[in-house]
C-alpha cells in the first residue's frame, strides 16, 4: 500500500461526476477550483460532459492510467469500481459512501470487513469510507466533498479528522491555512496512524492537527509519535472520550475502540503531544505554532496591554492557566519608566496605557525593551482586533511591531483579544506576515499560550520513548497469593520485610524464633482476597506461643470463611515501622500496555484521588515527574519541619515496577503494592497483589 | 445627591464642545447621534457653532436650567465648572479628565479628595473622574466619549465598568444590547455600589454586568446585592485581583483597595452573584440571560448536535464544566428513534446526524421530543453559525426553532458554535427574536451554561443575606491564652474537654485526681504560641505524681523559653479519644467582616488546601454546603464501610462559630479551633486560639 498514491497522486478520476448539488457535484467543483485541468478526469456513464469538461463512461475508457479514484457513488457500487480502478493502475481511492461499520449493524460491519479485504488484496490505499475526502495544498489536489468560501488556504498545518463536520469547520475558519486537510472517516484501510506518519515525514507540514476518536493499531501510532517527538514537530490532538458519555459516543460514531482515556494522557505526555479540549483550541494552537517564526527559547511570558482592566484580566488568567510571567530586570524597569507615561508602573503584566498606542516609536521602544529582558521568552500583546477598524491604534501598533520584528533575533509575539470577533482580515494578514498570530479570545488565548510554553518545555531526551504494547490475550485474570506476589515483585528490587510461608505448627514455632518479634501472621491463599474480613490476619505477635496460636486460628478461620479455598500455608512477616504511606500500581491496558500509577496511600488515594500515571517503560525522570506531580509530594519533601523522606528510593521503585511490567506485559493483568512505606532512608513494601493473565 | 440627575437627566450641557477629534468632539458626535436636539447644549467660549449647532460661551449663558454637565475639559478647569453648573441648577456631572488618585501621586490623591469634597458640598452626583461617560439607552441620553460603529444597541443589559477600555470593548461587541452602558472611572463620588443599586432598581435593566476592581463602602454594596438576590435579578461580575499580580494591578489602577479575593467568592456565593473570568464570559453570560425569554426550570441540559465529533466535544466539555445532562426517559428514546435516521442512537448528548438539519419538520419534531422530556431544563443546539452562510442547514434549523418556540411554554434553547467567528447578523437576530442566544465558542459556551444553571439553582432563602461589616479598627492583634480562648469559644456551645488552669503544685495534685486520668498539661500563656517547641506540652499523664512533675517542668521550660512571658498557670485537660480531625477558623476581613473557614485538619489542610469559606453570619444550609463542598466530606459520610460521623454536630459548630464571629466582629481579629474531633456521635474541640483586636 502506497499512501503517496492517495495523498500525492499525479492523475485522478472522479467517479460519479455531476454538476448537481451533492457529493459528486461539489467534488467536481472543488477539483476545478483547485487543480489544473490535466490532472483529473470525470467519469459518469450518464453524461457526456460535466461543467463543459469531457466525461468518460467508465474508468476503462480513460486515455491513460490514474493513481487514484474518488468514488462519489453509493455504497453498493464501491467494490466494483475499486477493481476497475485497480485495473487502470490506480493504487488509491477516496470513498465518501456511508453504510459501513459506523451504522452499527451486522451488515455494515461485514461490508467494511469486505472492503478492507478487497483493498488488501488489490494493495490499494483507501481513504474512508464515510469520509469527506482531502485537499493537498502543497501539490494542489482536491478530492474534497464540501464547498467552503473561496480564499487562500495554503499554509503549513496538516490536519486529519475522523469527523467530516469538524474538518469542514476547520476549513471554514478564516484563520486556518493548511498543507493537508484530511477527513478520514472510518479510517479503516489507511488508518489514523498512517496519516500521522505521513504528516510527520511531510516537509510541507510544520504542525499536525488531529481529531481522533480512537486508534486501530498502537505500534505504528507510537512509532509516528516518537518520530515527531525526536524531530520536535508539534502534534496537537483533540481526542474525545474523556468523559464517560464521550466514550460511549466515540464508540458508536466511527466504531473505534476508545482505550481508557487517562492512559492516553500518559501516552501524550510521554511524546510531548499537545492535548486540547475543543476544536477552537485545536485550531488556534496549530495556527499559532505555524505562524510564529521562531519558538520561544524559554516559557516565560511578558504581557503588555493598553488598559488596567485588560492587564488585570491577563494577570488572573495567567495564574489560572499556569502561565509563568517573567520577572523584569532592574534595567528593564528603569528603561520602561523612561518611555511610559509618568503614571504607569513597569510591572509584568504591564499596563502601557492607551496613550502609547498612538505613538509608533514609543510603542516600538517599549516592546523592544521588554523583549530585551533576558527572562522573557515570549511577548503577549493584549489588544482586541475588531473586524471593522474604528480606532487608528491598531495601525500604529502594527507598524511598531513590523519595525521591532524586522530583527531576525526578535522574540516571538502573539496578540490576545478580549472579545470574540472575526478579526480584521487586513491586519490579521499583516500581523501573520511578521509571525504574530492573533489568538482567540482571552480564556482560549491563555490555554493556547500554555500549550505553546508546555511544548517548548518538553524534552524528548527525558522520556523513555517506548511503549510496551502487549499481545492480545484471551485468558482470565487470576490473582496470585500474597507470598507469590511478593516473590515476583521482590525479585525486581522492591524491598519487603522477611516473609516465610509455614505449613505446620512445628515449622511456625521454629521459624518464628529465627525471624524475631514482633511478627505478623496472615493466610496465604489466592482464594482469600479480603484477609482481615476473614479473620485471617494477626498483628503484633510477640512470642512463639502466640505465633502457634495464631497459626491454628487463621487456618480455622480460612476454612470457615471459604470451604474449598486453596491454602498455601500461613505467611509470617516481621513487622515494620510505619513511614509515609504510598502506593504503586499497574494496570495493563489492552491497547497501550502497562500503565504505572503512584500516589499517597490510605485515604489520600481514595478521597483525594491524588495519583499520577506513566506509561511503561518509564525513564527515571518520568518517574520523578510522576512523583513531583502529586500534591502529596509535599509530605515526601519534608513537611512542617520534618526531615525529607527518601524520594529517590521511591522513584527507583517506580522504575523497577515499570521494568517488571514491561517484561511481563504479555502475562500480567495488574499489580498493586499497597502500602509501601517511605522512610528518611529507604523504603519497605508491606502488602502486594499480582494478577496474572495468560 | 440624586443619581437620577446623572443617569436620567432631562437636559444636559456639554462643556468643551468641539468638532475636532478627541473627547470633546466625540462626545458631541455621540450626543447628536443618540439624543433629540432639544435635550443638549454645547458650551465652548471659543466657538459660536459646533457641527452647525449653536454653542454657548458659558453655562451661565444657557437659556434654561440643566440637570447635568459633561465636562470634556482638562483637570484644572473641573472644579470651577462644577460650581458654575451648580448655579445653573445642575445636580450631576460627568468628568473625563484624569490626573486624580489613579496617577498615584500625592498631588493626584489630594486633587481627588478636593473633588469629592466639592461634590459633597454642592450635593452633586459625579461620574468619574478618569471615566469615559455613559449612555442611557432607555431615555436616549449620551455622555460617552468614544465612538463605536453605528448599530442598534438598545437592550436590557445594564453595565458599569471601572475600565473605560473594557466598556468600549463591550460597546464594540456586535452581540451586546444595553439599557445602560456606564464607564465609571475612579467612581469616587457616585460609587460602584451606587450604580449597582440604581441598576437593581431599574425596570429597564434585566441583567447587570459589572467590571469591578474594588468597592469603597461595603454596606450599600451588600444591600444592593441583597435586593438583587431577593428579586432574582442576575448580577454578573468580572472582578480582577484573583491572582497576586492581579491584586497589585487593581490597587495601582483606580486606587481601589482590593479585599482578600477569596472573601469575595464567599460574598458572591451568598448573594447568588455570577462571577466570571474574563470580558467575553461577562458579556456572553449577560447576553444569554437577557435574550432567553424564560429561565430554565431545572438545571439539566439536553445537547443536540449534527455530528459525532461535535457530540463528543459536548460530552467532554459538559463533564469538564460540571454540567448535568438530563437522562432521557424511555418515551423520549422511543420517539427519537422514530424520527432519527436508523443509524443514529438516541443518547444525550445527541448526535442527530446532519441529515436532519435539511428537514424542517423532522428537525422541529426532534427538538420538540427532547423538550417534552420532563428531565430536560434547557436545550443546547450545537451548530457553528458562520458569518457567510454557505450551507442552507441554518435556514432550515432556524425555521424549525421558530416553529417550536412559538409555544410560550417551550423550554429555553441556546446555540453553541465550535469555532470563533462573528456570527451571521441576519440569523443571530432571527434567533435572538425567538429567545435563542448564540453563545461564544464551545469552551466559553459551557462556562456560560454553567453560569446559567448555577444561577437558577441559587435559592436566596437558603442563605443568611447579611454580612457582619466591622467598624474600622486601629488596635493591634493580641492573642489570648489557650484557656481564655477556650472560654470564649466554649461559651458558644463548642464542646471542649474539661480544662482547669492550676497555679500551684498543690492545686495541680488535688485537681488531677478530681479530673481523672489520663490528663494533658500545657502552659497557659498568651506569650507562648508554639507550646510544643517550648517543651510546654506533656501528654498522657496517668498519676497525680506525673502531673506534679509535669507542672514543674512546664513552668521551668516556659521561663527558659521566654524570660518575661506572662504565665497564667498550667492548663490541665482530660485527654479525649481521637476522631475525624477537622478545623474551624475565622479571619475578620476589614471590608467584608468575619469569614469562616472549615476543613479537614492535619496534613489535609496544609497539603491539599481542602477548605471551604463562608461569610458570617452563615445560615445552617450555608454551613452544610460548606462542609459538603469539601473533598474530604467523604470521610465524614462514612468511608470504606465505617459508620458516618456526626456531620450535623460539626455543622452546628460552624453556625455557632459564625454567631460568635458576628457578635465579636468589632473586637476579634481571628480565631482557630484546631483540631476539632468529629465522632460517630458528637464532636470535641481540642485546641483553640482567639486573637482579639480592639
TrEMBL record, chains A, B:
Entry-linked SMART domains: CoA_binding
Keyword Nucleotide-binding applies: yes
GO molecular function: ATP binding; ligase activity; metal ion binding; transferase activity
Domain ATP-grasp, chain residue ranges per copy: 486-522
SUPFAM superfamilies for this protein: Glutathione synthetase ATP-binding domain-like (SSF56059), NAD(P)-binding Rossmann-fold domains (SSF51735), Succinyl-CoA synthetase domains (SSF52210)
Record's keyword terms, sorted: ATP-binding, Ligase, Nucleotide-binding, Transferase
InterPro entries: Acyl-CoA_Synth/Transferase (IPR051538), ATP-grasp (IPR011761), ATP_grasp_subdomain_1 (IPR013815), CoA-bd (IPR003781), NAD(P)-bd_dom_sf (IPR036291), Succ_CoA_lig_flav_dom (IPR032875), Succinyl-CoA_synth-like (IPR016102)
TM helices/strands, residue ranges: none
Family affiliation: In the N-terminal section; belongs to the acetate CoA ligase alpha subunit family.
Protein name: Acetyltransferase
Species assigned in the record: Dethiosulfatibacter aminovorans DSM 17477
